[in-house]
Amino acid sequence: MQTIIHSARLRGAGAPVASGEVGWVLVRDGAIAAAGTGSGWREFAAPETEAVDARDLAGPDPLLTPGLVDIHDHGAAGRLHADGAAASADIAAFHAAAGTTRIVASLVSADLDRLALQLDEIRAAQRFVPGLLGAHLEGPFLAPTRGGAHDRSSLQRPTGAAVERLLKPGGVVQVTLAPELPGGLEAISQIVALGAVAAVGHSDADFDTARAAFDAGATLVTHAFNAMPPLHHRQPGLLGAALDDPRVTLEAIPDRVHLHPTVLSLLFRAAPGRVALVTDATAAAGVGDGPTSLGGLPVDVRDGVATLANGTIAGSSITLSEGIRRAVAAGIPFHDAVVAASATPARALGRERMGTLEPGALGDLVLWDASLDVRAVWQDGRRLERP
Known about the structure:
single chain, alpha/beta, 2 domains, eight-stranded parallel β-sheet, 11 helices, globular
């Protein structure tokens, strides 16, 4: 069985963005087999081919992009990945319906025993949850001065034994840590050696320490500008080091709360091709205002903004497709925003077959209408049911 989606403008990595023509994508056996513009799709039409006219699903002037990849997500629909495998399944399904076909389950700081159990659940979920890439440990190796919405009593220094205990069983794809902590640079090398991506964040690292972290193997910055010192003209710090280093990808949360729209736009211009849009979504996503929690701490959501009692921002309540709409409203071209929410985060994790329309890539696709609302989603070539 194969599917052709045609009569949509193609956007994202691997798309012919220089052309104003409408295009098409052929998906066969769960992967993209071909893509092009015009009516070239007709040569692939056959009795066993499902031909989908994008205009029938999304109205005039639809857009077709790769599936979105969120490498920093804590939850949705009233649940957190920390709640267990069934919760991860519900969370992944919620975000997939909104266009996020690949997702990383993020865990906040907790004691090692609890984190080990939570990681067991995520590994179990990976066996039956499509698109769940693994876990992101956002802590516990964070600077207490930049703890954000993390329980300070759970923070600790990174030791070789702690890193090995959490990562050796597998399933962890990303670890955020503060490199200035004792043992921080050694932990980065160990994390990379164990096959995960080392991310710098929740940190007070100065410029030289940040550069040392990147030289040790860190290649990602967790939610740039948040939980770290601001960029200063005499003390460029972590942000300055990351912006200056072409090896480094910078996460950005496009919810208009974590970053001013102008700052988000400046970031895209300062680090072209190196910005990964993420949600940092919590249980508040898709629920609306009211009380919730994160890492055992009470959280209140008002007007879509999640905070602790002291006013500290506690993640977001958006989906990645909503983040793209807000990025576009900030002046970022739709194509660039899509790349930042698909190919760039996939590349940051070393997943070259995700987030692109190139032949051989996974058959993950999102169909948008002219207002940039998601109208259909395909995952591994299978169209998902949407509410």
